[in-house]
Each structure stands twice: as structure tokens, then as C-alpha cells.
Amino acid sequence: LSTELPVEKQLRADARRNRARVLEAADAVFAAEGARAGIEEIAERAGVGVGTVCRNFPTKEDLIAEVLAARCEELLGEMREAAADPDAGAAFVRFMTTMADFSGRYKALAEELAARGELPVRPGLKEQLHEATDRMVRRAQEAKALRTDVTTADLKLVISGIAQATVIPGVDASRQRFLRIVLDGLRPESAADHP
Amino acid sequence: LSTELPVEKQLRADARRNRARVLEAADAVFAAEGARAGIEEIAERAGVGVGTVCRNFPTKEDLIAEVLAARCEELLGEMREAAADPDAGAAFVRFMTTMADFSGRYKALAEELAARGELPVRPGLKEQLHEATDRMVRRAQEAKALRTDVTTADLKLVISGIAQATVIPGVDASRQRFLRIVLDGLRPESAADHP
User: How confident is the model at residue B107, as a pLDDT?
Assistant: First the structure.
């Protein structure tokens, strides 16, 4: 039995709505402008004051982490879907395409990757993404859809390279071309020392 | 017949030496720390005052441009050497390796590439590098050492991606691994739609 007054309930609902609005605005602004984007712009887009942003997310890093965490949960879902594909080769191509698009589109993510070499998300999520990637890689290698001299670390670097080279506005089509070269180079029969 | 006093000659020689020292220090500091490196650090390394740096190079951009121009002349020389290799395939691999190493090592260059999509060097040099690259690409394609659905723009993006992903300290070995995947993907027989 709740003892709270209707006005308190209303205030809590408003606070939740504001927080959701800030996150939505931050997602759009960071995707378009990268981690350099200002809190003022995010507040304006969300239709709230700068104070509301700061109450919910004391630092810009907190806000970036929350936005990326939400996107990474989505990414994890997509990876699980790809893993369910009976064709391991197709699943791998889908995984690489999703990762490159995701990283390229999220300038903030690419910048964080470049600056720290790791994502500012909740620890559990990072491990889950890492495990899902490892499983994907092993499965593709067992199915002879991916050369065996390539590691998960190599693939992360490749995705980071594609993302960083194609965050420049107007090079979206180039990302697909870059990815195609890489995917062709990753097939076992493409290795230079292939018997 | 020179009418200048020995002391004037001496002053000019000192000025030249200081300029050369600043350039050498800037080259080392930019390579290690990127374009973010401070003028103070460069002055200290060169053993001159900050004023001497500023008299020779009014802005940091001037200094970056001069350092990169010198490195690019060197690069052009290496490209011409590679072009003289009778094996067009080997020449292409050498070109890509040189470019990736050069771009990866020169963080400042990679950052400039990422930020502006172009080099802050003298116009003539840019065109010469571009022409040399184009010739290298055409020659490799004619020799069937490079797939024909790849453009010079694609290769520039690929090199930029490799460079940006591998400017993180400690990933020098990874650059070679990334490059190998890309080089394997660039051979005509690796194209997914190869007959």
C-alpha cells in the first residue's frame, strides 16, 4: 500500500521522463557530433535545463557511458540474433557489418575506443560482448569461413580502423567498400600463404 | 662580393641552426605525442626559447606543416624507389607498407587526416604524392596484383584506418597484422565475386 501523495508520484514521473529525454537527445547529438558535443546542446535538444542534465549525469562521461551502454545492449541483441544463424559464415559477415556500422555511426564510441582502447560501459556488458565476439570468431573459424591466423583482438582493431576512417561526414558508402576489402581478406582462401 | 660583417654571417648561421633544431625536435615530439604536443616541450627539446620557435613558426599549424612536408618529401622518394621495382605486385605491397607505417607512426599526420581529410603541406607536394599513388595503383592493377574494383580513394581510406587504429602506443605489431588482412583482401583472386 503506497502512502505517497499524488504530487510526489507526479514529480517522480516527470523526473523519469526528463531523464529519458536527456538520454534520447544525447544519443542523437553524440552520434552526429561525437564526444566533443556540449551539454548545452543536449539540454536544448531535450527541452530541459542544463541543471536537469547535470542532476541526472554529474559528468559528460556518465552521460556517454549511459548512452553507449544502451546502444551496446542493442548490439548484444543483434549479435545473439546473428549467432542463431545456421550459416556461420553469413553470421560472421553480419556481425562485422553491424560492428563497423555501429562504430562508424557512433563517433563518440570510436573516439572512446581510440582514446582509451576500451568502452566506458558497465563491466558485465563488456564481458558479454567480448564473449559473444569470441564465440562468433571460433564458430566462423570452425566452419572455415574465417582464417585461423586471425584473433579477436585483430578483428577489434580492424573494426576500430574502419570506424575511425569513416566517421568523417559523407564517407558512409566508403565504409562498405573498406569492409568488403577486409571481409575478402579474412576468408581462409585469401591468406597469402594459403596452400 | 659580400659586404656583410662576420658578425651578421654568424647570426644568420645561428638562426639557421636554431630553425633546424626546432624542426628536428618537433618531428620527434609530434611523432610520439601527436599534434596535441605543446610548443614548450618542443622548445625545451630543441634547447631554444619558446620565442625562437614562434619567430620561425608563428602558429603550431605552420610547424606541423613544415615537419610533415619534410616527411612527405621522404615518402615521395620512397614511393619513386618502389615504382622502379620491376615487380608491380611487390612494389604495391611495399607502397602500402610504407604508407601504413608512415601514417601510423606520425600521429599528427593521422590526426590531420582524420580532422581535415587532407594534408597541410605545400600544394605541389600533395599533387606529386597523389600522382605517384595513382600510377602505383594503375600499374598494380594492370599487372593483376591489385583488384580492379578498388580505387585510390579506397586505398587512402584503408591506410587512414590502419593508421588511426594503430597509433595507440603498443600496437605496432598489430599494424602489420591489420595490413596483412587488407593486403590479402586486395588481391584480385580474393574478391568474393571472383569467377
Answer: 65
